[in-house]
Design brief:
By secondary structure, the chain is α+β, with helices and mostly antiparallel strands. It has helices at 15-32, 64-85, and strands at 2-11, 38-43, 52-61, 90-98. The protein has a single domain (2-98), classed as Alpha-Beta Plaits. The protein has a 4-stranded antiparallel β-sheet, covered by helices on one side. The longest helix has 22 residues, at 64-85. It is globular, with a radius of gyration of 14 Å.
């Protein structure tokens, strides 16, 4: 199992708008590509900042090829739509993890 983790720091002023958009648009669009079997959204509770809050978007795939194919085929659409919509109001850090146990 592979976990494609997208950690996003969002300005607190747009937090609720961002959450709604991620739940209603972003996650369904990613899952619709059929490269991932499941998705989860977590708030990072160890992050303490006056102006921003962090979230972890987690997408699960059975094969690393699914993640690579998603990144190759959908960066220009799904990921870019996030960048455009929340330009200068967020930062993103991506990690790919492999389950070992």
């Amino acid at each position: 199992m592979f976990l494609y983790n997208v950690t996003v720091g969002v300005d607190k002023a747009i937090e609720q708008e961002w959450i709604a958009w991620v739940k209603e648009t972003y996650i369904p669009a990613v899952l619709e590509t059929q490269h991932f079997s499941n998705a989860k959204l977590y708030r990072v509770v160890t992050h303490d900042d006056e102006h921003s809050v962090s979230y972890s978007l987690q997408f699960f795939a059975n094969q690393i090829e699914s993640v690579v194919k998603y990144l190759d085929e959908h960066t220009g659409t799904i990921i870019e739509s996030h960048r455009i919509r929340f330009k200068d109001r967020h930062v993103v850090f991506n990690t790919l993890l492999e389950e070992v146990i």
